[in-house]
Design brief:
The chain is an alpha/beta fold. The chain is about 45% helix and about 10% strand. It has 12 helices and 6 strands. The strands form 2 sheets. It has a 4-stranded mixed β-sheet. Strands 1-2 form a two-stranded parallel sheet. Strand 1, helix 4 (about 90-100) and strand 2 form a beta-alpha-beta unit. The longest helix has 20 residues, at about 140-155. Residues about 1-10 and about 280-283 have low confidence and may be disordered. The structure holds phenylalanine and fe (iii) ion. Fe (iii) ion binds near residues 172, 187 and 188.
């Protein structure tokens, strides 16, 4: 950002709202409970340990919609992240700006009973159940802040299409390789009943070892389960691979073709081998 910027702080705006936790209805808390119970059972053996530990540490549970003030007490003592509520969609600059300052932007509304399985826009279950637990993990917490800074830079460079793919294939739909097989860390999967099964158990999607340039070139689907998942070895690896200055990488990739969501490239390292046949022993 230049010092001559006439609007130096575009994201410290008046759009932050209070969560107003007291105003949730009994029915809204009941929807949270149903979602939580369904998903928390499913995620045992599917979500990564770092995520499950965060859920536990934050005290996110079936009682009802969490109070951001309580979550923020815990986050404040662990990684320093904070959750802030916004009324709806905000600008990209605001989104990245908050993230660069370790503020995670979340919605306060919860889906209706008719929307249990499919949503077009994130609700509080996606934002809080899906994203917030990993904010307790120091390595992931650092990655997301770095992403926020990278987002502000990509905005200036006109490279947001590419950087958005990195968010999509890691923060939203990422898989992690562990000694026990693949585990989920992406929030878009963690908050989805169908996809948390599909991404690990279905033979159809590609599961490919994470490669930064490959990811930056790969388009994604917003209307269906992913055709490709990228698998990282650790959050430290993710951080290390995304640490270099992206400016020359954006320039290099700008002239290259994009990949379609389901395409396989010759250089892809397939990561299906380490997927669990949950239940059947590996040779
Ligand atoms: N290294 C990236 C850049 O120079 C910033 C970044 C870090 C982006 C981590 C995403 C994740 O733009
Ligand atoms: Fe999300």
């Amino acid at each position: 950002m230049t010092t001559a910027d006439p609007n130096p702080d575009p994201y410290y705006d008046d759009r932050l709202i209070a969560q107003d936790w007291e105003s949730y209805s009994v029915e809204e808390h009941a929807i949270w409970r149903r979602l939580f119970e369904r998903q928390s059972h499913l995620l045992v053996g599917r979500a990564c340990d770092e995520y499950l530990a965060g859920l536990d540490q934050l005290g996110v549970c079936a009682d009802g919609i969490p109070d951001f003030r309580r979550l923020n007490d815990v986050l404040g003592q662990t990684t320093g992240w904070q959750i802030v509520a916004v009324p709806g969609l905000i600008s990209e600059a605001a989104f990245f700006g908050h993230m660069a300052e370790r503020r995670f932007v979340a919605t306060r509304w919860i889906r209706s009973p008719a929307q249990m399985d499919y949503l077009q826009e994130p609700d509080i279950f996606h934002d809080v159940f899906g994203h917030v637990p990993l904010l307790t993990n120091p390595a992931f917490a650092d990655y997301l802040q770095a992403y926020g800074r990278g987002g502000l830079k990509a905005l200036r460079l006109g490279a947001l299409d590419m950087l958005a793919r990195l968010y999509w294939y890691t923060v939203e739909f990422g898989l992690l390789r562990t000694g026990d097989g693949a585990r989920i860390y992406g929030a878009g999967i963690l908050s989805s009943k169908g996809e948390s099964i599909y991404c690990l158990d279905d033979p159809q999607p590609n599961r490919i070892a994470f490669d930064l340039k490959r990811v930056l070139r790969t388009r994604y689907r917003i209307d269906d389960y992913q055709e490709t998942y990228f698998v990282i070895d650790s959050f430290e690896q993710l951080m290390a691979e995304t640490a270099p200055d992206f400016t020359p990488i954006y320039a290099e990739l700008a002239d290259l073709a994009e990949f379609e969501p389901g395409d396989i490239q010759p250089s892809d390292e397939r990561a299906d081998d380490m997927l669990t046949d949950r239940g059947s022993p590996q040779a």
